[in-house]
């Protein structure tokens, strides 16, 4: 796994983050949402997916994993902050995808650090 972590487009945790983001973006298609829930899921989901793609393209970008963790926390707290905690489907989607995004970002952080260390020594 250490060998593949330095190559672009090979890290499974970053692929998982892309999938989590896409699921969040598409959630308003099959869950009842209000305007706040819909736009929160779309915007934060798109940011999670885009940051996952950036991390896949540039495996040594350590701050990308930190951004993932922050986005996951924002997604987790968004039902309370944006006022859609009473909408069970949208709220649970935010909570679950938020936690999974934080976990994936935290697990990918050591791989990003290792890839960054290898590429930093080559400059």
Automatic annotation (TrEMBL):
The record's listing under Pfam families reads: SPW
User: Where in the numbering of this chain does the SPW repeat-containing integral membrane domain appear?
Assistant: 14-106
Top-level taxon of origin: Bacteria
Give the residues annotated as coiled coil: none
Q: Where are the transmembrane segments?
A: 12-30, 36-54, 66-85, 91-112
The UniProt keywords, alphabetically, are: Membrane, Transmembrane, Transmembrane helix
Protein's UniProt name? SPW repeat-containing protein
**Native source species:** Amycolatopsis cihanbeyliensis
